[in-house]
Amino acid sequence: MVSESGAAQSKRADARRNKETLLDAAAKVFVASGVDAPVRDIAREAGVGLGTIYRHFPTRADLVIAVYRHQVEACAEAGPALLTSSATPYAALRDWINLFVDFLVTKHGLASVLRSDSAGFESLHSYFLDRLLPVCAELFDAAAAAGEVRSDLTAYELMRGVGNLCVGAEGDDRYDALRLVDVLVSGLRLLPD
After folding, report:
1. What integer pLDDT is reported at residue 187 of this predicted model?
2. What pLDDT, on the 0 to 100 scale, is given for residue 60?
3. What is the number of other CB atoms lying within 10 angstroms of the CB of residue 90?
4. Per-residue buried b or exposed e for 37-51, using 16+ beta carbons within 10 Å of the residue's own CB
């Protein structure tokens, strides 16, 4: 027999998973169709009704901010996991940068919606840097310490360079930000003597 506290914990875990599924679906729809995509498309992708979305996120801005924070957290949590599971620190850095690029392409669309609230946007941008810069630094420093990448750059410079390569990627089928970022990350690699 399940105790009341066990049932409540299970219900909270289910609600958290459902919300994450909804946020993942929203991010996917935003990447494919932009942040102005109909909410019904997000509901369809998540396999939920419109009421479920509006119950969690009464406004589009609420949904956009939640997707942004959800993606920042997923990217932040991926770094340490990649560092322990990848064959080399460079492989972990490369894989993390690919996740970061996926996030950035979504983020630029989200940012355009959030710019109307400059204080809120600045707060989210600070949150983004506070969460992701240490993760990138950990990965970059590990790869540099292993002698796999050049060490005359900083994690901030790397993130900024990747970010600049991603600007304008959405909506231009002729531009592949991931491919150009791969060229940048490959350029970090130190070749054996």
Report:
1. 94
2. 85
3. 22
4. beeebbbebbebeee
Q: In this structure, are residues 66 and 103 in contact, taking their beta carbons and an 8 Å threshold? A: no
Q: Tokens in use for 112?
A: 């355009």
Mean pLDDT (10-residue bins), the chain, 193 residues: 64 76 90 84 93 90 88 94 97 96 73 60 84 97 96 95 84 85 94 67
User: Which two tokens mark 72?
Assistant: 């920042």
Unique residue bearing structure tokens 């089928």 = 173
- Rounded Cα distance, 99 and 79, in Å: 9
Please give the Cα distance from 167 to 160 (Å, whole number): 11
* pLDDT given for residue 15 in this prediction: 72
Q: Are 149 and 126 in contact (CB under 8 A)?
A: no
What residues does 149 pair with on adjacent strands? 189
3-class SS at 149? Answer: strand
